[in-house]
Batch of 2 targets.
Target 1
Amino acid sequence: MIRRKDELDRMRKAGHVVAEILSEIEAHIKPGVTTKSLDKVAREVLEKRGARSNFLGYRGYPATICTSPNDVIVHGIPGSYVLQEGDIISVDCGAIVEGYHGDAARTFPVGGVSDELMRLMQITREALEVGKSQLRPRRHLNEVGRAIERVGKRAGYGVVRKYVGHAIGTAMHEEPQVPNYWPGKPGIKLAPGMVFAVEPMFNIGGRETVQLDDGWTVITKDGSMSAHFEDTIAVTDNGPEVLTV
Ligand code: MF3
Ligand code: CO
């Protein structure tokens, strides 16, 4: 889909709300805090900004954000888990404003964390940056995944394949998907007005995943720690524009 200027303006508004949720949550992250209290922070920002949640009720999802500590890769459900000093916690959130969606995720440290975990977070964020830099008119979409995979492999990480990024607009998940690896073909040719959620997930160990019986929580098969960074990004004539700021 190619978005008109007025549609991109609405997506910028949704993106701003998502960024505000993430920054409010970041300010609340400390040892002793439950993940469900972070969900409440997100609900309050949505309410204050007159925005709706795109996560709550999505295929029956029971919360407003996903909170994924340590070896949880994605889709952790906020609950009674208490953040511990030395944990990392991935927070994924979204918002709908005037019918348009934003989606973003960050992995945060809880108090002081090991150098190994700081490196995991830095490199996963760097992978999002290099993936983003491929989103330019006339390039091909799957260059994003090629660039992300290169960063993850060079660092020795497991690059998760089972869960991928996606186009986004009037729905959270639109076609086409945005793999975090080279899928063997270049994919669509990019044009101004296309918008994608790019979301690398890297594991310190292998890339294999296991879904828990709650139907949502996805963990690393080998128990290794995992990080996830995501932004909603538009292709423009002036290069990639991050909307979730
Ligand atoms: N934000 C996730 C994504 O990046 C979707 C979360 S699934 C939900 O695609 F059910 F929690 F919404
Ligand atoms: Co997403």
Note: The helical segments are 5-28, 35-48, 115-132, 143-154.
Target 2
Amino acid sequence: MKNIALIGFMGTGKTAVGQRLAKKLEWSFIETDLLIEQKAGKTIPEIFQQDGEISFRETEIGVIKDIIERKDVVIACGGGAVLNKINIDRLREHGIIIYLTASPETVLKRVSSGGNQRPLLDVDNPAQTIRELMEFREPFYQRAADITVDTSKLDINAVAEQIINRLKENESFDF
Ligand code: S3P
């Protein structure tokens, strides 16, 4: 069974790149955040506000557990999914994990456009929070990653192409 999971900080392009990648491979595309919202029947900011982050993380674990039973799916994971090792173990067991990176400045620029859908960055000083959270999470992302791709100078198509080329080089991944 094989899938492709995209991990990385908020604003690293997991959704945009994942959609493009799925299209190129003619695979399905799934976003864990969307499934969490559907399961909870409310938006992510509402889940954080009404139920708390722990409840959000529990739903995230359940959603990832369900998705990995599928095949030929590009999965865009929420930025914090790596914090629970069980998610990484499951994603790895059923596929390959691609880590998308971007500089804190790029992330700030990307998440600042288009309203705040990210409760963790709904703070007085998002630039500082991004730097701190990124630093804390970096080892989690690195430990989980099979392949790492920088998206700072993001050309969605080029990133998707780069991922496909790297997958072709990867012996454990058989197209
Ligand atoms: C989160 C990232 C978000 C979403 C939630 C928590 C995180 O997803 O899951 O707001 O902890 O980094 P994106 O990475 O798709 O923005």
Note: The first helix runs from residue 14 to 25.
